[in-house]
Amino acid sequence: MPMNYKHILLLFLILFQTYTYAQSVWSDSLILAPERSQFQKTSTYVDVIGFLEAIKKQSNNVFIFSMGKSLEGKDIPVAVLANPQIKTAEEAKASKKAVIYIQGNIHAGEVEGKEALMMLMREILLVDKNHLLDNLIILFVPIYNTDANDKMAKGLRPSQEDSPPETGERENSQGYDLNRDGMKMDALETRSLFQNVINPWDPQIFVDLHTTNGTWHAYPLTWAPSYHSAGEYEPFEYSYYKMLPSITLAVHEKYDLKFGVYGDYELNEGWPPKNFYTYNHHPRYLVNQFGFRNRMAILSESFAHNRFYERINSTYVFMAEILEFANKNSNEIMDINKNAEEASIQNVLKNAGKVKKGVQYKMVPLNKLNGFITYEYLTVLDSNGLKKHYRTGKIVKYDSIDYHAKFIATKESTLPRGYIIPAEFTTVIENLKLHGIQLEELKKNQSFTGETFLIDSLVNSKNSFQKHSVAKLYGNFKPQTKSFKNGDYKVDMAQPLSNLIFYLLEPQSDDGLAYWNFFDVYIKNKTIKGKTIEFPVFKYF
Ligand SMILES: [Zn+2]
Q1: Residue 39 C-alpha to ligand 1 middle, in angstroms?
Q2: Distance CA 314, CA 248 (A)
Q3: Residue closest to 140 by CA, chosen among 116, 170, 163, 168
Q4: What's domain 11-348's architecture?
């Protein structure tokens, strides 16, 4: 029987059905733990590794490597998404594409980033978002805090209202909060991240995925850029005034979700709220540390009181739109970051010894928030005449709220041309190298002219913070010419990380190495009652 048009149509239908069937049936290994469990469970470490192994078999656009091991010996997997596939930082650099880094699970009770990253990997590698690899090389780290993820228990995230019932712990196995470790680098994870990912791959944008601790604003997700303090202004300006508002608008238009700026209000200031406060400027927070690296960064905080599946969705759409924006504007982003790097070097070359920069900061209002949405509170007086607040289920809108997200210097110090570090300070030298800072060993005895900080007193905090009794130094700088030995280290500030070097090495920096006790033993051994001693790191002009 000759084929007529009916036969041909039938053949097409069969072929088409086979095709769509192949497209819509997923391999079982790509279904995530929350999807399998009606959102009662989050993925374990083994689940994540299983997912990565499975997706690797189905796409040529992914390569997986380990950034390093946790204390329990678990590899921390990094998925490199690139078209064509890329395996090394050198290949990434040669491609001239922008590298974007996104990590989940830094706090292992805040698990939606981990799930959303794997969902987005499926979309990019197997469904309809492969175009994001046109101009980007994307590094996904779904499970940064590996050990803590599996220490699952009930009640570790009270604000998340048992959704999912069990989550991991906040701190890593050494007991550190990985998002307070950006300067001191005590944690194995931080060291691996910087040595094996950040320094070699040099991402243009760093994204850190969290869930809020509980303020009842009514945004499904809030965000913050890398805040501006002693770094360059332009990457902050671009992130805060252009990139993040554009992404927020796109999320609203495409997904009908309204995202806002990150913060908390304080009920003891009365109702309705007049102030909304972000978190601090300190570069111990990884997102802020990136500002000092002349790169952009984004803090993502899904709303704790939404259900788990809603938080995953908010995080997913935010990341999807960050990547859409970065893919469209990759050249502009790279130019702004490169210019910031150049500006920081030029500032050292032109202004060393002449200008001052902040080493301590305080938070002040940046702008007014209009149309701010929050759950409403009712205020009553209790029998003692004290104000008590009851939250209603109603969402209300307020205008003209002061958003506290600007940081102004409360103490400044002169920008040097460089620093000299005596060779005996091995932990300081090791820390600077971990940050990717270039050091030069003196080849002969040499003298330098600049300033020495004379310490009047060192005061340690009474309470332990991140296993440190953090230190504050009091004293003054005086001009000096000082000799150093062959083998001591010189840190020339005319290098890309000059702003970071300044904040690490200034003796009165509120997040520097002196603050984190790197010099306590030396200072305490030298101190004779009532006598000033010299801070060992010297600033030369
Ligand atoms: Zn967090």
Answers
A1: 20
A2: 11
A3: 116
A4: 3-Layer(aba) Sandwich (3.40)
How far is residue 343's CA from residue 335's CA, in Å, rounded to a whole number?
12
Bridging pattern class, strands 296-302 and 205-211: parallel
User: Which residues on adjacent β-strands are paired with residue 166?
Assistant: 154
Measured CA to CA, the distance from residue 313 to residue 318 in angstroms comes to: 8
Residue type, 169: E
CA of 343 from ligand 1 middle (Å) equals 32
- Residues 195 and 439: their CA atoms lie apart, in Å, by 15
Residue with tokens 């010299």: 534
Two tokens, residue 521:
């033993």
Q: How far is the centre of ligand 1, averaged over its atoms, from the C-alpha of 244 (Å)?
A: 19
CA distances (Å), origin 426, targets 205, 259, 470, 488: 31, 45, 20, 10
* Residues 167, 42 contacting (CB under 8 angstroms): yes
pLDDT digits (tens, 9 = 90+) for 468-491: 999 999 999 999 999 999 999 999
Q: Tell me, what DSSP letter sits at residue 204? A: S
Q: What distance in angstroms lies between residue 212's CA and the mean position of ligand 1's atoms?
A: 7
| CB 318 within 8 Å of CB 259 | yes
Domain boundaries for CATH 3.40.630.10 within the chain: 11-348
**How many Å lie between the centroid of ligand 1 and the Cα of residue 142?**
14
SS3 431: helix
C-alpha 104 – ligand 1 centre gap (Å):
10
Q: Two tokens at 359?
A: 């080493």
- Cα 223 to middle of ligand 1, angstroms: 12
- Report the candidate in 81, 61, 102 with the shortest Cα–Cα distance to residue 203: 102
Question: Are residues 412 and 358 in contact, defined by beta-carbon separation less than 8 angstroms?
Answer: yes
What was the pLDDT predicted at 24? 72
Residue 203 CA, ligand 1 centroid: distance in Å: 21
DSSP for 290-323, please give it. Answer: HHHTT-EEEEEEE-TTS-HHHHHHHHHHHHHHHH
Per-residue pLDDT tens digits for 259-295: 999 999 999 999 999 999 999 999 999 999 999 999 9
Residue 95 Cα to ligand 1 midpoint, Å, equals: 33
* Ligand 1 center to 28 CA (angstroms): 31
Write out the two tokens for 242: 């252009």
pTM for this predicted structure? 0.95
